[in-house]
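Thread title: Can someone regenerate the structure for this chain?

I was given the following input by a collaborator and told the matching structure tokens would be attached. They weren't. Posting the sequence so someone can regenerate them.
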Amino acid sequence: MAFKAAGIIPARWGSTRFLGKPLHCIAGKPLLQHVWERCRRAKALDEVIIATDDMRIAEAAFDWGAEVSLTSPKHRSGTDRIAEVARHAPEFTHLINIQGDEPLVDPKLIDRLVRELRRDRTLAMITAAHAFEKRADVASPHQVKVVVGAQKTALYFSRSAIPFLQDSAAEFTFLRHQGIYGYTRELLLQFVRWEPSPLERAESLEQLRALENGVRIHVLVTKTGSPGLDTPEDAAALEQILARAERKGSGR
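Best answer:
Regenerated them for you:
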């Protein structure tokens, strides 16, 4: 079957920490529109689809020209939502799960993920990580850490600082996991059939379900990453970063 990749952006209204986050206006546009526009700049995607169960989000996305897939309101996670889209779109061999709250997601990173999946057709799952800019952030349970092996595959993900440094003065590059994933359609549909695993429940990290079921997760280690927007308080700082990025991109 010919390789064909879709970028899917799951979006829901009812975030517990930030109600209506996808349509929160940043730098003159809804947050979700910034993400969608970034994804559209990626050259390796055959399609970009917003997956949502909320008509407010769907109607707004239709207005700015996005393709929208209306999904069930019963999904527990964005991965479940993406799997519903994949289930009804057998023409796509691979799916890229793009977080709807990262308006600075790098289109070149999306392209790198797709190219790696195209290059190695035995690879079923891929993600990305980068070194922490601030050592203090390593201690935050809101920043997910990942350790990788010699073959650039994930050994473990955690909200704790991993590995533990026996010598606190030791030099070690801690990696921040960026929540972007690429999957084969086959793996994605299998993944959502697996029950949540013990480590997943302990850490509240869905990707651990894949590791516990023997999936090899390739990790692209990049120089930088993109910040997400978790709370209304994040919006002001992110707006300034986004404005600078937009000025740089336009050459002003």
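The CA atoms of residues 155 and 224 lie 21 Å apart.
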